[in-house]
Specification:
Blueprint lengths: L1 H18 L5 E5 L4 E8 L2 E7 L22 E10 H5 L5 E2 L12 H10 L4 E3 L6 H10 L5 H44 L1
Antiparallel strand pairs: 1-2, 1-5, 2-3, 3-4, 4-6
Helix pairs in contact: 3-4
Length: 189
């Protein structure tokens, strides 16, 4: 069964590679997150990646989450690599889904963006990750839907917890008041 799955992933990746056009964004699902790059052509991908790994299993430390006074950390750099060296065992996919709401730049400008920052070092999970870089190359907008989804989830979860706490406090207060009133009525009788 595992051999079949590996063959299916290999077939999907070969098919994807044959269909990609320069300037397309490639998403490399890694489980809990996705790594992103920009297809340059000739099986080459420009991406922001750590030298040891591009994500969860990398030497991620808390200081990589934020920038300090706008300074990024030396965790990753913009590199040009062969598609097969990046894809590992995941089923990569073309992801230009923002084309419907954002205007993609010309293919020439996307390639220029993707290659103009080669060797540039700097990383912040929240402000400057591989998805920020890829979307900046294609759309001129540095944005990470993954980060925004996590932040939104945390905000919704926090709001739900706050609401539950308020409901609990009111229930406790009103429940106690009702019990006290009932107790007073019993004493009067």
């Amino acid at each position: 069964m595992q051999k079949y799955a590996q063959d299916a992933i290999m077939y999907q990746n070969k098919t994807l590679l044959s269909e990609l056009e320069p300037g397309d964004l490639i998403e490399f699902p890694r489980g809990a997150y996705s790594h992103w790059g920009v297809y340059i052509g000739n099986e080459l991908v420009s991406h922001l990646a750590g030298e040891e790994d591009d994500g969860i299993n990398a030497a991620m430390r808390p200081e990589h989450l934020f920038t300090i006074s706008g300074v990024k950390f030396n965790k990753a750099k913009v590199s040009l690599q062969n598609f097969w060296d990046i894809v590992e065992d995941c089923a990569a996919r073309k992801n230009n889904k923002r084309d419907g709401s954002w205007q993609p730049l010309s293919r020439e400008k996307i390639i220029t963006n993707a290659t103009s920052r080669l060797g540039e070092v700097g990383y912040s999970l929240i402000y400057s990750n591989c998805e920020h870089f890829a979307k900046w190359c294609r759309y001129g907008v540095s944005k990470s839907d993954q980060v925004e989804n996590v932040v939104t989830g945390l905000a919704v979860g926090g709001a739900a917890a706050l609401t539950a706490g308020i409901v609990y406090a009111f229930a406790k207060f009103w429940g106690a008041s009702a019990e006290e009133e009932e107790e007073k009525n019993k004493r009067k009788q």
